[in-house]
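Lecture notes, unit on protein representations.

Consider one protein chain, 262 amino acids long.
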Amino acid sequence: MDNSNICHGMPCWSELAAKDWTQAKQFYHAFFGWKMDDMPLPVGAYTMLSLQGTAIGALYPAEDDPCTPMLGWSTYFAVDDIHASLQAVQASGGVVRLGPHQVGSAGFMAQVADPEGAVFCLWQAKDHSGAVQGGGCHHLSWVELACKDADSCQHFYQQVLGWQCRTLMVNRQLYRAFSVSGKPVAGMLQMTSDWGDMPSHWMLYFQVADCDDSAAKATSLGATVCVSPTEIAKIGRFSVINDPQGATFSIVALDDKRLAQQ
């Protein structure tokens, strides 16, 4: 899959490691309307997710791989040279958890953790560039890091992914918005004591037309609403969901009129 809009430092793929592959496919097809295309592998299987012919990401059965380092949703960031990027990860205090591995003719992947332990993946594309963030309703809209030391984490990600940063206030909290060549790619916020002992983590946001209706639909399909639909000043409305197997993701309904005024 060729996608020239994706360059170094941009989110390029979303992937779910599910305990029950069949149940996960049923839930996400019913919730987002994603098309599922199973790709048999020598061990296990891999399901490509798409919507009206546009790539979304993938899911796979974690039980088929006892070495799976993390259940739930993961985000991938594109890199030009995965070996150089892994050196940057280690030099900046991060850890290489898995890889680098060649994935056929598609490209090369690695799973890493930042200095606070938040896990994400790197992808050097060959034949498969991935999926563009911000494709519209039921596509990935945003990725966001919740961390304990935002200054330190900002330095790490700028060293590894080359991000530019600007700060703004969102719901009376300092928020760091990152970009690549002027294109927004990710956000970061520093967790307060209200978060308790929750570890640092990446959150994936998928766009929906109506946050409240979608949260209710998720509940009807067996999911749990962790954060009720909440207003984000000048952005829209979001909610945090645990799918029926406990994988966490967020949904967001964007206010196009307010965004256009920014």
